[in-house]
Write a structure and sequence with these properties.
Length: 322
Amino acid sequence: MPFEPDNHLAGAHRIGVLIRDFHDASGEFIPAAEARWNVVITPDAENLVIHHDLAPWNLVLGGERWVFIDWDNAGPGSPLWDLAYAAHGFIPLAPGTDVTSAIQRLAALADGYDLDEDGRSNLVETIAPRIMSIYDLLRHGHYSGAQPCARLWAEGHGRVWLDNAEYAERHLEVLATAAGDLDRGPGGWYDRGDPEFPTVLVADARIGILVCTDLWFFEWARHYARSGVDLLCLPRATPYDSLGRWLAGGQVAATCSGAYCMSSNQWNPSGAGIDCGGLGWVVDPDGNVLATTSAEEPFVTVEVDLDIARQAKSTYPRYVSE
């Protein structure tokens, strides 16, 4: 059964806390020398007794308590081996999950576990091999006839695990980008730069540049109005579910700056690659949308009148002193 809490980020965080509590308790457990384990997949290391199957189908949700069950494969392994498997199931790391949501949920899981920086980076590197370990188990069962793996392979489970491993591998770079500070989410991917917003002159046009999130600091659009820019360029990488909000922000920036606001955005098909939904635009100095791009029309050409931008600097709200 899938993991579908009302608040997925809070749920992922709680799973991280639950796993950390278990691992901390397991760290105090000293198994008998003659202990025999039913570990069916060789882990990446053996420094802790772990569960080996932390997944939604082994989680019981009570009114106040969440409890993991099905401990028959518990045995020596590593904390990251358990955590990577849990990330696969509880995020979930599968083609149906958009990458932005995957990063945020992985952040919540790692934060709940209180994973340090090195651990976060190593977790990302462990995820795809951990998923592939299940594919390899089912594939071996298919050729050997071992049950239930042979049956699960015949039912198509091998293909599902392979697709999920490819999803994780394909998005490894963007997951790793966030690994240095996962608990902060996308805001942890970058630091504040120097507050310098110079202009450049190209032919007869003075150009100002805002990069993606810079848009939401409208004081810099006002700064560009005072600098006399004609064109305000805004490259970005923004997701599908916020496109309308970004266009509205572009209209405000054009109005504040009294300049034509032109924006481009990366585009990927929904659910494939980084979650970027396209929608470039050209907005005039009064906030009117002159043209937009789409998957069907990825390029547009608009003729602009620089005199309109220059005259706009002396009209409302540009002339209002701060």
